[in-house]
Model the fold of this input.
Amino acid sequence: MSKYFRQEELACKCGCGLSRMDPAFVALLDLVREHAGPPPGIPLVVDSGCRCAAHNAAVGGSPSSSHLVGTDGLCHAVDIRAIAPVTRFRIIASALSHGINRIGIGRTFIHLDNDPSKPPTLIWLY
Done:
């Protein structure tokens, strides 16, 4: 499914096993990783991928979160650990260059998603 991400990394962190990440999105994440730094890129640590409704509620996620399974049966979001400012910049620049235009910036992570049910070009702060 992915060159760099194991299915377990993208699955719900509560242990329920939910793992329905959009394959096209995962392919974009591979490209983001490869181009986020000098070859071979920088490792991207997934803090959150797909979420079941219970886990989403437990972490304070929005009821309409792109981490949840959408109407198409797929999850469309990840939170990538990014503590250093240069790491944030590299991830965001690479995501934008590969067409990921829904980006949330937190103190310790970057949210990336390609949710087709939401406005396609937004950047927000947590």
